[in-house]
Write a structure and sequence with these properties.
Number of strands: 5
Number of domains: 1
CATH class: Alpha Beta
CATH architecture: Roll
Structural class: alpha+beta
Distance between the termini: 36 Å
CATH topology: Ubiquitin-like (UB roll)
Length: 90
């Protein structure tokens, strides 16, 4: 697990699936962020802490606690953010 430290912040879990989990080499990462952080902030910190995440799209589809969100979505302590790969089907 990878984490950073933030003295007065929040802890967020990132979940990765399918191709993204294979690319990064894990299915879950815990990251500490300052209070007031957004999904966009989380993605930037994730890329900084986990170099294997660099190939992921700049603005991947994300869900916070099973609800699809924009990068501007504020985060709360204990949130689970899923980074979802594109789905294809017919």
């Amino acid at each position: 697990m990878t984490s950073s430290t933030a003295s007065d912040g929040l802890m967020v879990s990132i979940r990765l699936f399918a191709r993204y989990a294979e690319t990064v080499g894990r299915t879950r990462v815990e990251i500490s962020l300052p209070a007031g952080a957004t999904v966009g902030d989380l993605l930037a910190e994730f890329r900084r802490l986990v170099p294997e995440a660099a190939p992921l799209p700049e603005r991947p589809l994300c869900a916070v606690n099973l609800v699809h969100v924009l990068p501007t979505q504020p985060l709360r302590n204990g949130d689970e953010v899923a980074i979802l790969p594109p789905l294809a089907g017919g």
